[in-house]
Amino acid sequence: MKTEIGLLLLRIVLGITFLVHGLDKFNGGIEQTVGMFEGMGFPGFLAYLVTFAEILGGLALIIGLFTRLVSIIFAIIMATAIIQVKLDSGFLGGFELDLVLLVCSLLLALSSSRLLAVNRILPGAMKNF
Known about the structure:
By secondary structure, the chain is mainly alpha-helical.
């Protein structure tokens, strides 16, 4: 039971973290985020995909919906951010937060979090996502 409580806390805090980061991308207009993505060499539309993944995925984690799937998506986003953007900046002041978010996402992808999760009421195989 202690492990489930720990995973619940991790799921909720990770969800809030991604939700807030997604909402923050709208500060000053999403166009600013699009410009930032393009400045890093990514297509601008990815800014929209990442932003909405962070917002919707963050909400999904908070309520425990599709925890494994959302966590895999977040792990991909974080791995890409580390490798393509932050690695050259080094650990401190560079990719340390991204690495923590990546590992937390991987932990939830591997173990899920069923306590107080909407997934528990889904039918059959849907519970495993």
